[in-house]
Amino acid sequence: MEFKREIYSELIKWKLKPKRKPLLLMGARQIGKTTLLKSFGNIAYDDFLYLNLEKQNSTHQIFEKNKDPVSIINNLNIIHGSKILVGKTLIVLDEIQECKDALIALKYFQEELPEIHIIGAGSLLGLSIGNDRSFPVGKVEFLDMYPLSFSEFLQHYDTKQYNAYHYFINTKEIKPIPDLFFDSFQEIFKEFILIGGMPEATADYLTHRDLSQALKIQDGILRAYELDFVKHSNKTTSTKIQQVWNSLPSQLGKENKKFIYKVIKSGARAREFEEAILWLIQAGLVSKISKIETPKIPLKAYEDISSFKLYTLETGMLLRLAGLDPTTFISGNDFFIEFKGSIAENFVAQSLKKIYNRSPYYWTSDGQAEIDFCIEHSGSCIPIEVKSGSQTKSKSMGVYKKLFDPKLRIRISNLNLNITDDLLNIPIFYSEYADRFISRIL
Predict the structure, then answer these.
(1) What is the pTM of this model?
(2) CA–CA separation, 308 and 258 (whole Å)
(3) What is the pLDDT of residue 363?
(4) What pLDDT, on the 0 to 100 scale, is given for residue 394?
(5) Which of 99, 168, 204, 408 is most buried (CB neighbours < 10 A)?
(6) Res 159: pLDDT
(7) pLDDT score for 1
(8) Three-state secondary-structure class, residue 298
């Protein structure tokens, strides 16, 4: 099964730009970057050259001590077996972080051969960029890729569900969703949260409907991540990365979910684990949600970098890390309660990051109130609270309203789509379209 990815349209936009730069596709391992780029190259272009710089080490010599793009193209012609054609051939350099010279060469393609269509991608590309001062800043474009969204899952869930999928992606009005669709979305969403957004595990599940096999694939992905910890960092740092990674279920299982170093091990300090946390962020495996002192625009100016939460890249990985029994997550109405809303918050955090291309923030006030997420939208700070159970009343949201009188408040819950006064309720399965509904009001 090959998923139709929403990000494909962004690749088409890049191709059609009159002044495009070389593109870097960023994202964690196993989220489908290679499959996407191969599909894009084979469908959108007359000709396609794909190189994996991790597996094909011999190709590194093409870029080593040679930054002349004309010379590089001549050598690539030999590998390709035919001439690379301007505007008709797509060159993909996968796992480009394994060849520093290839990354640097992108600068010269932008300056001297901008007509060549070239894309670099890599599962640990963020690590290379974040730690390399010679990176060609301003000479490339970036495109972030994420695991599968619920709408992408829904599209392939069942061909008989086409009408439900069509309704899902085209809903724009803020009014209750008909029960027929609402109930269906809720049930399918439970399965999606459990399986997560990793394409291999999801494709296997949708094809065979064998949960145990899909979970084995998830475990294999987790092991691959852990091997990366060792392969791409020194022994001391890799141990700390593993410790931070393993602590995430406990961190998110707490009431306020704030990251506490002592949860990793007794006596742990920030300076010991800062590098490990940064590694996980740059590898795309976690998102850091920082606290803001006051909800004013720009939110970045009021960030408290010492207080933060860490969420995993998707919910399936968090569930496997936590070692929770999958059957408890696919039965009953209180789907999220067992893990204290952590799964729900994790899903919403990643949805907001994808929508706004940056992580949201959270706000708290001396232990009296806490808002799960704060986002900037249309020049305003919008508070968002996630309610995973049947109880949706919020003391914190009331406190926030009295203090700051926001233009709009958002509750993401298991309730239907509706708005009452200044409180917009968005069903949790619609988190990825939160900006669509907010824009209808602001």
Answers:
(1) 0.93
(2) 6
(3) 97
(4) 80
(5) 99
(6) 64
(7) 79
(8) coil
Relative to beta strand 369-377, strand 380-386 is antiparallel
Q: Helix axis angle, 162-170 relative to 150-157, nearest 10°?
A: 160
The 10 Å Cβ neighbour count of residue 226 is: 15
pLDDT tens per residue, range 115-135: 999 999 998 888 877 666 667
In degrees, to the nearest 5, what angle opens at C-alpha 64 toward C-alphas 52 and 78?
60
pLDDT of residue 328: 66
The number of residues in the chain equals: 442
Q: What residue has token string 């706004």?
A: 356
How are the residues of the chain apportioned to helix, strand and coil, as percentages rounded to the nearest 5? Answer: 50, 15, 35
User: Cα–Cα distance between 45 and 300 in angstroms, integer?
Assistant: 41
Please give the helix or strand (H or E) that residue 89 lies within, else none: strand 89-94
**For the chain, which residues score pLDDT lower than 50?**
333
Determine the Cα–Cα distance for residues 374 and 388; give it in Å rounded to an integer: 18
Which two structure tokens, joined as six digits, stand for 209? Answer: 């409907």
Tokens 């020194």 belong to: 234
Q: What counts of helices (H) and strands (E) characterise the chain?
A: 17, 13
Which residues fall within 8 angstroms of residue 219, CB to CB, at 6 or more apart?
Answer: 320
> Per residue in 282-311, pLDDT tens?
999 999 999 999 999 999 999 999 999 999
As a whole number of angstroms, the distance between CA 291 and CA 304 comes to 5
Q: Which of 221, 288, 295, 224 is nearest to 258 (CA)?
A: 288
Spatial CA neighbour of 86 closest among 109, 117, 110, 111: 117
Q: Give, in order, the Cα–Cα distances in Å from 80 to each of 66, 77, 141, 316.
A: 19, 5, 25, 39
Angle at 212 between CA 210 and CA 217, to 5 degrees: 100
